[in-house]
Amino acid sequence: MFKLNRSITQELESCIRSALDAGELTPSAQQRIQDLVDCSELTQRDHALLDLLNDAIADGCVAAQLVRR
User: Is-contact 31 7, C-beta < 8 A?
Assistant: First the structure.
């Protein structure tokens, strides 16, 4: 389970870093993040990453819809 959670965290972080770098969250990345959120037990780090993304979206730094949890 630890390896699975680590993999999820790495994938979330990669998608979120890309969104922050580009200033937008692509529909495919947004769907992937939503799939991970819906199908996984998220760690505290995962929640922190999602909070960071949602804050960036709310502040207008990243163009996308907020990711629901």
Answer: no
| The model's pTM | 0.84
pLDDT tens, residue order, the chain (69 aa): 455 567 889 999 999 999 999 999 999 999 999 999 998 789 999 999 999 999 999 999 999 876 776
The domains of the chain are located at: 2-58
Do 4 and 42 contact (CB within 8 A), yes or no? no
Q: What is the pLDDT of residues 8-17, one digit of tens each?
A: 899 999 999 9
**Any idea of the CA torsion for 16, 21, 22, 26, to the nearest 10 degrees?**
-10
Most distant CA atoms of the chain, gap in Å: 35
In a 3-state reduction of DSSP, which class is residue 24? strand
